[in-house]
From TrEMBL:
PANTHER family with a match to the protein in the record: FORMAMIDASE C869.04-RELATED
Superkingdom of this protein's organism: Bacteria
Name of the molecule in the record: Amidase
Taxonomic lineage: Bacteria, Pseudomonadati, Pseudomonadota, Gammaproteobacteria, Pseudomonadales
Gene3D superfamilies documented for this protein: Acetamidase/Formamidase-like domains
Single GO MF descriptor: hydrolase activity, acting on carbon-nitrogen (but not peptide) bonds, in linear amides
Source organism of this protein record: Stutzerimonas stutzeri (Pseudomonas stutzeri)
Length: 311
């Protein structure tokens, strides 16, 4: 196993899109670890007034990168040797930490869960104390940090072309799932040779739903172990923590996203146990917990948490 570090510069990032057409910024062997960083989503309108708090490489990325249809800075792609279409990329999330002493939260026009009710648009810049692990809101409330990457992805199928970074799909992407944090493993279906791994959209903390459109958007650095799995065939993202199985449903319709999350949990329960489909479905009703991942990314998200102790 070799450890690799991708420098947090605009040369290693794309802004606002995911695609199979970009040249890899790094090639790694299956099982290697990669540390990478990302900047807060959005443009210069999201920056704090104090210019001394803004990283020079962040400003350079804002000036040098061509913005795609989405707002997110995404690092990659990383080519994982041996990965081929039909394989699964196992992404072990090992670390996620702040790189800035500020983040932002916004209410933006026509976005969020209640866009017609919140038209007094506003951006705040909470102070991040990484040493204490808290963010302080302008009115004094302290919230515990729980950092994670909102976007973890492989490149979409070539036929899909350039996909906005905003909408999560079968390749992962902007899932904004706060459970995808250090200690969790994410499985992604591979659509291209080398898998072409991306990560970005740092979040300091987020509630399920992400209702106003943003989490605590911030600069983040993290480490991933990337492993090619030829023994595991999946069609949709799936995750697990040491204590939970986590199925992921993504759809424009919240009901259909919930159905997908339940369907995927049933499928994985049957694959991991001797349960029949009926038995797995009933277990989901007794012990599975459906949660609204996010309501604001085009394709809404629902995930199911299943305690492993019931397997």
């Amino acid at each position: 196993m070799t450890h690799h570090v991708i420098a947090p510069t605009h040369e290693s990032m794309v802004w606002g899109l995911l695609s199979a057409e970009f040249a890899p910024v790094l090639s790694v062997a299956s099982g290697d670890t990669v540390s990478l960083s990302s900047f807060p989503a959005g443009g210069k309108e999201c920056l704090p007034a104090e210019s001394s708090r803004i990283l020079p490489e962040y400003l350079e990325a804002l000036d040098r990168l061509h913005k795609g249809p989405g707002p997110h800075f995404v690092t990659g792609p990383v080519y994982v040797q041996g990965a081929m279409p039909g394989d699964t990329l196992q992404v072990d999330i090992l670390d996620a930490r702040p790189t800035m002493d500020w983040g932002y939260v916004s209410i933006l026009p026509l976005l969020g869960t209640l866009p017609d009710e919140f038209t007094d648009y506003q951006t705040i810049h909470p102070h991040i104390d990484a040493a204490r692990g808290v963010a302080t809101l302008p009115w004094g409330t302290e919230i515990d940090l729980d950092p994670f990457f909102g976007i973890v992805a492989v490149a979409p199928p070539p036929a899909w072309g350039r996909c906005t970074s905003s909408v999560p799909r079968a390749f992962g992407g902007n899932m904004d799932n706060k459970e995808l944090k250090p200690g969790t493993t994410l499985y992604l279906p591979v659509f291209n040779e080398g898998a072409l791994f991306y990560a970005g959209d740092g979040h300091g903390v987020q509630g399920d739903g992400e209702v106003c459109i943003t989490a605590l958007e911030m600069g983040i650095t993290g480490t991933f172990r990337l492993t090619v799995r030829k023994d595991l065939k999946i069609e949709h993202p799936f995750a697990e923590s040491p204590t939970q199985l986590i199925s992921i449903g993504l759809d424009e319709d919240l009901d259909d996203a919930a159905r997908q999350a339940v369907r995927e949990m049933v499928r994985h329960l049957c694959a991991r146990t001797g349960l029949s489909r009926n038995e797995a479905y009933m277990l989901c009703s007794l012990a599975g917990n459906l949660r609204v991942t996010q309501l604001v990314d085009g394709n809404k998200g629902v995930h199911m948490m299943m305690p492993k102790r019931y397997l």
